[in-house]
Amino acid sequence: MKLCFNQATTLENSNLEKDLKYCDKHGYDYIEIRSMDKLPEYLESHSLEELKTFFQDHHIKPLALNALVFFNNRNEEDVLNEFKQMVETGSELGVQYIVAVPLVTEEKILLKDIEESAVKMLREFSNIAEPYGIKVALEFVGHPECTINTFEQAYDIVQKANRENVGLVFDCFHFHAMGSSYEALKEADGQKIFILHIDDTEDFPIGLLRDEDRVWPGEGAIDLDGLLSTLKEIGYEDGVVSVELFRPEYYEMDAEEVIIKAKDTTLDVVSKHYDTQPI
Questions:
Q1: Which domains, and CATH codes, for the chain?
Q2: What is the pLDDT of residue 71?
Q3: Number of CB atoms found within 10 A of residue 44's CB
Q4: How far is 6 from 246, CA to CA, in rounded Å?
Q5: Start and end of every Xylose isomerase-like TIM barrel domain (predicted)?
Q6: Rounded-to-integer distance, Cα 168 and Cα 126, Å
Q7: For residue 80, what are the CA distances in angstroms to 52, 113, 134?
Q8: Which stretches of the chain drop beneath a pLDDT of 70?
Q9: Distance CA 120, CA 115 (A)
Q10: Which of 70, 96, 193, 227 is the S-S candidate for 103 at Cβ 3.0 to 4.6 Å?
């Protein structure tokens, strides 16, 4: 199992340049680059070529651009143009995945309309990304306002999209937050899970959890041992575990300290189930 860092973990106390420096120093294999803020900020004073050269010269590599936000049930032309730009940028950098996040809204949308839009857009993304060798990872979000908010709903959509380069981000927090089905997970094909997000949370009821409730892996209420053992059983074997936290208190810490702590707590949990290869 390879170790990845998601930039949400240092969202308010770091930048891409610092995250790369510290993650490479402390043995992370990959980074998920926040394409909506951290990458544009970096490009204000650096070039894409500089970033590409950094990855060529260092151990750490770019796993994904995270994320195309609100990909379903909105203007298709706008979404496709945004996705094309992300694929072109991702191809330059050598990313493996583009993460796609569903629409979050208080508007009531019929489930059949959500499914129809999501399947259509994922197939369009597949066609665009395939020539570049890039895969599309749908991340369901465990909030009541998200149009795709459980594992079983997201997995069904991916199955209906039926494309080899379309799969899922499995986020432990999002699985827990809306009470996703363990039975559905046990029946799933682990090869359709492209990225594993590791995190934990305070013990609030289903439907009330939000990103800021996340805590270090192993220090919260999620049954991470149960999830990791199940993921291994269904075939998520040699993948990547990416630590993603949005904790306000952690943003008050030194960024390097957060990156070290995130690594240590992640490995403590994951190493009970998977072989890890930290530097």
A1: 2-271 (3.20.20.150)
A2: 98
A3: 6
A4: 10
A5: 21-257
A6: 13
A7: 24, 18, 15
A8: 277-279
A9: 8
A10: 70
